[in-house]
Every structure is written in structure tokens, then in C-alpha cells.
Amino acid sequence: xxxxxxxxxxxxxxxxxxxxxxxxxxxxxxxxxxxxxxxxxxxxxxxxxxxxxxxxxxxxxxxxxxxxxxxxxxxxxxxxxxxxxxxxxxxxxxxxxxxxxxxxxxxxxxxxxxxxxxxxxxxxxxxxxxxxxxxxxxxxxxxxxxxxxxxxxxxxxxxxxxxxxxxxxxxxxxxxxxxxxxxxxxxxxxxxxxxxxxxxxxxxxxxxxxxxxxxxxxxxxxxxxxxxxxxxxxxxxxxxxxxxxxxxxxxxxxxxxxxxxxxxxxxxxxxxxxxxxxxxx
Length: 281
Ligand SMILES: Nc1ncnc2c1ncn2[C@@H]1O[C@H](COP(=O)(O)OP(=O)(O)OP(=O)(O)O)[C@@H](O)[C@H]1O
Ligand SMILES: O=P(O)(O)OC[C@H]1O[C@H](OP(=O)(O)OP(=O)(O)O)[C@H](O)[C@@H]1O
Ligand SMILES: [Mg+2]
Prior knowledge:
Its cofactor is Mg(2+). With 281 residues, this protein is an alpha/beta fold. The protein has helices at 13-22, 50-58, 69-75, 117-126, 142-145, 160-164, 191-208, 221-227, 256-266, and strands at residues 2-7, 35-38, 43-48, 64-68, 79-84, 90-96, 111-114, 132-135, 151-156, 168-177, 179-184, 209-217, 235-238, 244-252, 269-275. The protein is 29% helix and 33% strand. 35% of the residues are buried.
């Protein structure tokens, strides 16, 4: 039985559930459901608070989980990041009223409000700064307005929450975070956990690449293939028309138009792009 920890709500929960569904695992019927059991697939999904996921997985109570890198590192739990999942991106940053500080080096003797005390204490130590950390559960931006802290350290996605509270980012990012797949650090993954990891890797690849097909004169095929090297090697097949071949290769989605422009200039024609529904590398 594979036991998977999933965020039950918040910024990561919908995308995590969608990614797992695309990998062929079950979902929950409503947002109040806390456990989903699938006896055919032999998996059980536990919907937990995002902050608690690294604790369960680190203890080995659950085999794998999806959480944020920031939450994993703040938990100090013996769980390891296996795969970055490409959603829920954010940075963890200091912010204060304009003019309060320019970097972490200016924080000596100040009060820093945060819900990620370990990340902040580690960063202050790295800068050799002694400051007091005010541990709050959330909505930390308000701590400055209410006079509980001089600055905050918090998750920033768009920066809207900071702006709305009259705060400005300062210093380097403490951490770049995104959703990650985690498993217990001190034991080898079961074969079912490895299958899950490969499936999620497949979902990621299918979303990051497109399939490109085109026809090209045989004498130009090397030049064209240098633009579309594929993941391993492009497939080159003969065409009925003498002296021409068809080429098929995976291309990074964000390069789609640039690669098509290059291929057209080299002499490729009938350049077609299709979505990859699923893949296993
Ligand atoms: N815009 C965002 N706001 C908050 N967290 C985000 C955002 N984008 C990504 N994340 C990530 O989501 C995770 C936090 O999730 P969430 O805010 O749902 O949990 P929480 O703060 O523990 O719960 P709650 O906010 O319900 O108290 C972190 O890993 C964080 O980096
Ligand atoms: O940069 P932004 O796009 O504004 O997003 C970041 C904000 O979102 C999160 O809050 P959340 O809704 O999780 O509440 P919380 O602070 O109580 O956890 C985070 O703690 C910031 O406050
Ligand atoms: Mg939150």
C-alpha cells in the first residue's frame, strides 16, 4: 500500500490534486474528505495541513508527500526533496516599512515576525546577526502595523499582500520555493513510490515539451536536427518523395516558435506541433 500525503487546502492543494490525477491516481470528491482509499491501485491519500506533511513523511508514517520546499526546510523533519513539481512558486523574503533596513545585515537587535522561524534563524545566523524572531501563525504582515515586530519574513508570490500593508522587500531572497515531492530521508523508496515519482516526472515532461514533426531534404537533415536534438535523438523516417525525410522530436514548449522559425529558414516544411498527452522517459 502506497500512502500519499496531500495538502488539504491552501495555495498548493488544487494543483497538487490535479497533478496526481494526471498521473493516474484518484482524487477526492469534495474538499472535506480527509482520506481517499483506492484498493485497486493499492494507494491511500491523506489530506493534511501543508505544514504537517513533512512531519508525517519524515517519520515514515506516510511514504511520500507533496508540500512546499519552504515548509519542508522549516520543519527540520528528516524528509528529502525528490522532485520539484513546477507549481506553487514563491520566494521567502524580508520586508519592512520603507527605509527600515537594506539587508539582513541591518537587522541586529530588531524583531522579525514570521511563521517560518527556522528559515529565519538560519538566515540570521548566516549573516552573523542577532535579532529576535517573533513566531506567528499567519497574516504576519500585520505584525508591523500592530507594533509587534519591526520587519517580517514571509512568503511572497505577487507582492500584493506586502504592498497592501505598506511594506517593501529588502535584501536577497532567503529561499526560492515551489511544490516538491518528498519522501523519508533515511530509507530507500518502495517500488510503488518509485512508480509515483516516474509518473509525476512524466506529467512534468509532457507539460514542458511539445512534439514537433517536419519534412526536410536529406542533405539538410543534420542542420535541422541540430535545432531539434530531442531528448535522446530525433526519429528520422523516409518519405515517399525521393530525397526527403520526416523528422520527429520533442522540443521544449517555450522554444516552440523559435525552433519553428529556425527550421523554416533551414528549409523544413510541413512543420507540425502537437501536445504530448503523457510520457514516461
Ligand atoms: N501566494 C501564495 N501564498 C501562500 N503560499 C504560497 C503562495 N504561493 C505558493 N505558496 C506556497 O504554499 C505553501 C503554504 O501553503 P498555505 O498558505 O496553503 O499553507 P499554510 O500557510 O500552512 O496554511 P494557512 O495559510 O491555511 O495557514 C508554502 O509552501 C508556500 O511557499
Ligand atoms: O505575494 P502575494 O501574492 O500577496 O502572496 C503572499 C501572501 O500569501 C500568503 O498568505 P496566506 O494566504 O497563505 O495566509 P497566511 O499568511 O495566513 O498563511 C503569504 O503568507 C503572504 O501573506
Ligand atoms: Mg499561508
